Amino acid sequence: MADPSDTQRFPSGVPRAVRLHGQVLDPSFLDPGDLILVACEKPSWLQRRIQRTQSQLFEWDHAQWHHALVSGGGTEVCEAVLAGVVPTQYWKYMAGKHRFKVRRIKNATLATRTKVAYYAASMARTSYGFGAILPISSTLNDNDPWKKSIFRSSGVVCSQLYFEACMRAGILLASIPPDRVSPAHLSATSEMDDVSLQWLRIKEPDSPTTV
């Protein structure tokens, strides 16, 4: 049981919605460079569309993940959202509305995995890769990642962010162009190991009684 007011464990505090939920992924087991795959318990139309498209090529164990975060260690993450690549913390996913899968690169030292986190963070403010959406969909529908596309993107999507950060650290997770990588590809690659989830219960301290 952790106290959300513990500034050593949670230096930036814990949002109220997370405190009310009462449970978070334990920050202490998340290393820099870990991959955090995310699925919403009640996915939106777009999230369901991503899941359906990924299921054309992958089983549900992999197809269910519609978003990917790059762990910076602890509560720190980097992600590609519609506004672009942003360094942030994992709190918005910790209010009981999401499922998770954590993966770690095989046979990579902590120093190498830390480089992955660094390279992802160095892409902050890169625009979102809207132009990659149709090529990724085509790859999943046709099972042909090398099929030519008229669409090009100068930005990145969430799975591409992680994949490219790994490439810059000298790690190739799959034989596929970076702009064709989906969260399901990252879930399925044999170049990573699954990491057992560790949860931390949090409890508000008792309010002082007044006499």
Give a quick rundown of the structure.
The protein is α+β, with helices and mostly antiparallel strands. The protein has 7 helices and 8 strands. It has one domain: Alpha-Beta Complex (endopeptidase fold (from Nostoc punctiforme)), CATH 3.90.1720.
Chain-wise SSE layout:
Layout (H helix, E strand, L loop, with lengths): L15 H6 L1 E3 L6 E9 L4 H10 L5 H4 L3 E7 L2 E6 L2 E6 L8 E8 L4 H12 L11 H10 L15 H11 L14 H6 L3 E4 L3 E3 L10
Antiparallel strand pairs: 1-8, 2-3, 2-6, 3-4, 4-5, 6-7
Description:
The protein is of the alpha+beta class and 211 residues long. It has a single domain (16-201), classed as endopeptidase fold (from Nostoc punctiforme). It is built from seven helices and eight strands; from the N terminus they run H-E-E-H-H-E-E-E-E-H-H-H-H-E-E. It has helices at residues 16-21, 45-54, 60-63, 110-121, 133-142, 158-168, 183-188; strands at residues 23-25, 32-40, 67-73, 76-81, 84-89, 98-105, 192-195, 199-201. The strands form two sheets. A six-stranded antiparallel β-sheet has the order 5-4-3-2-6-7. It has a two-stranded antiparallel sheet with strand order 1-8. A hairpin with a 2-residue loop joins strand 3 (67-73) and strand 4. Helix 4 packs across helix 6. The radius of gyration is 18 Å and the shape is globular. The mean pLDDT is 90.
